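A student in our group prepared the protein record below, which I am reviewing. I have pasted the whole thing underneath without changing anything:
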Amino acid sequence: MMIKPFENQHEKSWVYCKALSYLYSDFFDDISRTKDNFTDFYEDSIELVALDGDIVVGLLDIGIYSRENSRAYAYYSCDKVAYFANLAVHPDYQGQGIANQLFERAEILLREKGVEALAIFTRDDEKANHLYQKWGAEVISRDWLVVGTPKSQEQSFTFQVLPEQKRLAFVTEDGELPYYQREGYYIVAKEKDLELFEIEKVYEERTYLKRYH
């Protein structure tokens, strides 16, 4: 097994690896037919694959925001912040330390590139949360993704992160909203506000931050 930078010829195998890894996980809805690319808000990226022969059996992607976007980043404002975009290990290769090897290689590059902080978003997946804590990341906020029907109408708001309370806030002129809608989910900032929904499914989402400076 060899770890190396992603190349275009790996894309089909990359897509298969991610799809199989995520299929029965809490991230089942984060599957695409093409590999993510890092343009728009990013100035750089770290894109690694673990190969068994020519087959992608593990992958890790981290996007590095531009200075302007890093300073405007609500979760942690600094000159250079990175976003942990993808981590997957083929089901047949899990439990062999591949994720650790990918992250060890990525961390060397993060430090070389002068990244000050790495933001990681995950759901209430025991293995994923264990890894991020093992790697030294700290939870800075929690929220809930709700599939269901709200019992009242939505309003416009300003998005904020409250690190001291380890949660998000959706603020209007009249106060704080309990939730907003994003990509088919309602995002709920406080667990008690889940009672405002007729819920079909709910997922806890956690935001981690690992600081390098």
In short: The chain has a mean pLDDT of 93. Helices lie at 11-22, 67-71, 98-112, 126-134. The domain at 2-136 is CATH 3.40.630.30 (Aminopeptidase).
